Request: fold
Amino acid sequence: MKKQLFVLWTLFASIVLLQAQEVPDGVVTAFQKSNPQSLERYMHEDVSLLLAGEKNEVMSRAQVVAAMRTFFAANKVKGFDVNHKGKRDESAFLVGTLRTSTGSYRVNCFLKKTGNNYLIHYIRIENNQ
Reply:
């Protein structure tokens, strides 16, 4: 009986975890490899971007890629760790820590479901002090 309950609990936990992981793995990989071009495929056509020390702006995908390319050139990435990620209803989020040559940054990405995919609508990168 205990073994059956354990198997049932493991199956249930696996299903819940799989459903909560709506943030595409490619988003995490793009931050780990400081590659905004690979992040572009996960972006909505308009993205609100807030980079450390700058004003929050709504930009096109191409503008976001260019701004993030400049940011990554000035802040060489040493690593990226996911602190939290999950989903609720038609949205998903990712909170992580980006370690760079110039310091540590907190990264927030918010995604909304568009069709069958979750697309980034908001990226916030701020000093983690």
The domain at 23-127 is CATH 3.10.450.50 (Nuclear Transport Factor 2; Chain: A,). The mean pLDDT is 86. The CA atoms of residues 4 and 50 lie 49 Å apart.
